[in-house]
Amino acid sequence: MKRRTWGGLLAALSLLTLVACGKRAAETPPAASPATTAAQAQAGPETLTVLATSDLRDLEPLAPLIQQATGVKVAFKFGGTMESTEAVLSGNAKADAAWFANAKYLLSSPNGQAKVKLQEKIMLSPIAVGVSESDARKNGWDKPDLKLTWKDIAAAAKAGKLRYALSNPATSNQGFMALMGVVAAASGKSEALAAEDVDRQAIADFLKGYKLPGDNSSYLSEQFALQQGTKVNAFINYESWLLSLNASGKLREKLLLIYPHEGVSTADYPLMLLNDARRADYLKVVEYLKGDAAQTWQARQTLRRPIRPEVAAKLEDLLPRQGLQVELPFSPDRALADGLIAAYLNEFRTPIASTFVLDTSGSMSGGGRRQQLVDAIQYMAGADASLTGRIARLNNRERIWLQLFSDKPYERLSFEVPSAARSKGVKEQADSDAKQQVLAQVRDAADALNMSGSTALYDAVFVSLEHMLAERKAHPNYQYSVVAFTDGQNTTGRDLAAFKRDYLSLPEDVRAIPVFWVLFGEANEAELKQLAELTGGRVFDARKASLYSVFKDIRAYQ
Fold it and tell me: Which of 34, 232, 437 minimizes the C-alpha distance to 222?
C-alpha cells in the first residue's frame, strides 16, 4: 500500500477549530498570547526566536547545542496550538520561525503560504493506542502477529474493554486523528469520504470508551497515572509521548503500544521560516537539526523518530519497529472536518454537566473584573461566532449551573441546552430557535450579576459538589465538572483546612468530579494549586491572559 500524506492534512484541518477569527458585535474576542521563556524575554535582535507549541518543551535543551554547533542563538517561545496558529496566520507571531506538529493548515491557504517562507520536516511520531499490559494480555492483544484495526478498537470501546484517555478531538491533533482513524476505517472509502458518508455508529461505539478527557497531555498523563486500572486502561496519543510515559516510572504498569493495522497518522514537526531576513540563520539551524548528532539526540531524548531513514536505521533498538507502517489516507474535505467536529461536540461525546462557581463579592466591582466575567459568559453562551468560539460555546444536550456566591452561596441558576435533529453523516447545523433562547437566557443572567459582600469560596465549591453528587445520581450519563472562579482570597465560611476535611468525607464518586480553579486578581495561588491536586483538576491563570481565553481553555477539559 502506497504511503499517503492526506492524514496530516485533515488532521491539520482540525486546527480550523483553533483559530480565533470571529467578532462579537464590533469587538474582537480577547485571545491569549503564547508564553515567553526567560531566555526569549532576554533575546536581542541577533537571536532567532522560535514560536513552538507547548508539546515541544522537551526540545528546549537543544538551544545551547544549536548555538554551539552553528553560532546561531535560539530562543523558544511556547504556546498552545490555538494561540500559536492564530499568531502566525494573523502576522502577530513576533517570531522568526515556528515549530508545530504539522503545517498543513498553514500552507493550505494563500495567507498561510505567504507567512511561511520555508519549511523542513524534522522528526516523526505516529499516533498509537497504549493499553495497560495486563488488559492487553487479558484481551489477547499482546500477540506480536496480531493485526488489530480501528474497527477492533471501536468494538472494544463499545464492549467496555477499552477505557481510554484522549485529548479533546475538537482542539487537538492527536484526538482528531484518532477519531478520523475510526471514521476512515469504518467507511471503506477514506480517500473519497464525504461528510454525508460518515458511519455515525462507528463514532458512537468508539466514544463509549472515552473516559478521561482533557486538552493537555501533561494533565492527562497525571490523571491517567492516578486512575490507571480503575477508571481507565488505555491512553491514545503520539508514540513518543506514550514511550516517554512508559519510561517515566509513574505508571502502575506499562503500556503496550498498538498501531492500527489499516494505518496511522503521523506528526512530522516542520520547522518553518517566518522572517525571510533570517533565512541564512534558519538554514544553518535546519542543517544542524537534520544532521546525525541532532537527529540522534532528538530520538534518544524525546523518543521521536528521525526524519532521515539512515539515522533511524541505527536506532532500531530504541523505537518499536512496527510504528511507521502506512500513513492512513484521509479525505481533505473541509466540510468533513468541520462537520465531524461539530457532530462530536453536539451529538456524540458524553454531554457536559458543569457548575460555574462565580464570585460576586464587592471586590469584583473594581478593575473591570465584573465586565470581564460578564464578557466571558456572554461569549461562552454564543456571542462569539468564531471557530474557537464554537468550541468554547455551550453545546447541544449540555446542562450548566451558575452558582453565585459572596458572603455565602446564595443562588444557583440552571440552564439546559436542547438536542438537535440528526442528519445523515455529519453536517454542521444552525442553532435551533430553542437553543438560541437558552443561550440568550444565559447571557441575560450574566448581564444581571451584581457585586457586593465578601468571599466564601470554599463554601460555594463544597455546596456545588454536593449538588453535583445529587445530579449525578439522577442523571449518570453526563461528564461532570466544577469551575471555581474568584478574584480574592477566601475570607468567610470554611477555611482551607475545613474544606479539605469536608471534601475527603464526600463519597468517592463525587470526588471523581474534577474542580478547575481560575486564578484571578488577588486569589491565593498556593492554596488553589493545593486544591487542584486534591480535586483532580488544575489551576488556570487569568492574571496574564484574558478571562475569556481562560474559559476557552477550560472548556477543552470538560
Answer: 232
